[in-house]
């Protein structure tokens, strides 16, 4: 499997916190968010010295060639995905639930590889919702371990393929080691430019809008803005998707035949084209993705005009 790459990030803390909030907000900011952990610069060092293993199969000629019928000039910049149906996939095969999630990770890897080949700039995936905390403890723990493993195993790929990783959501609820791994990975890959993978963990659209409002209220309280200054642009600066140049998904795909958006990126999806696939997420491969993109390219986007 080309993506398999083991990397054990032993944190060697050498740089100051990458927390980039204005200093005037720091006392308040810490009441809203866990402090970001320091950048592990040893990670960057280790990554630049492990270039021998195979990355995924991304050849220069692939990035020039698109499947028949798919137009480069109409490619969505940002695709969002609700990766639904992992447990059903496992149950249908009499497998334990964890096998469904593991198969889901493989599917995600394939889709990331395709995005890089076909020139999609950003992929956002709903990996764990705020409501998923209410799932059985053993399942939640398994998912946390899967995030940890996935991020560690693929760290080298992200570097070699110039992939930026961003994580959005209420990370304060995650195990400390996972928080640190995520923040370090975000920091270490922040200058990568080919493609950005946004992983939504402990995330919901409600959470995102509420945390943005809290930040704006804080700024108003500090006298930095007037309540009447608040507009769409100021809101968007505070949403967690401020981590990307393309905050509004052009296309949302939900797998498994459900027709809901389930509290994912509520603000950001305002003008997004929706596509619902019957396949369960672990079965969603290149052919299905192509179908979704071709359907997207048939749509006329009017933005209410
Ligand atoms: C490293 C990384 C980002 C990993 C992502 C792993 C992954 C595929 C997570 C999906 C989690 C999830 C709660 C999916 C919803 O479908 P469900 O499993 O609840 O399916 P069901 O609708 O059949 O119950």
Automatic annotation (TrEMBL):
UniProt xrefs under Gene3D superfamilies: Decaprenyl diphosphate synthase-like
Keyword terms, alphabetized: Transferase
Coiled coil (residue ranges): none
Record's GO cellular component terms: chloroplast stroma
GO molecular function: ditrans,polycis-polyprenyl diphosphate synthase [(2E,6E)-farnesyl diphosphate specific] activity
Matches recorded under PROSITE patterns: UPP_SYNTHASE
Pfam families: Prenyltransf
Biochemical pathway: Protein modification; protein glycosylation
Superkingdom per UniProt: Eukaryota
A GO biological-process term: plastid membrane organization
Catalytic activity, EC: 2.5.1.-
NCBIfam families: uppS (TIGR00055)
Family from the record: Belongs to the UPP synthase family.
Purpose of the protein: Catalyzes cis-prenyl chain elongation to produce the polyprenyl backbone of dolichol, a glycosyl carrier-lipid required for the biosynthesis of several classes of glycoprotein.
PANTHER family registered for this protein in UniProt: ALKYL TRANSFERASE, DEHYDRODOLICHYL DIPHOSPHATE SYNTHASE FAMILY MEMBER
Protein name: Alkyl transferase
Organism expressing this protein natively: Gossypium hirsutum (Upland cotton)
GN (gene name): LOC107889771
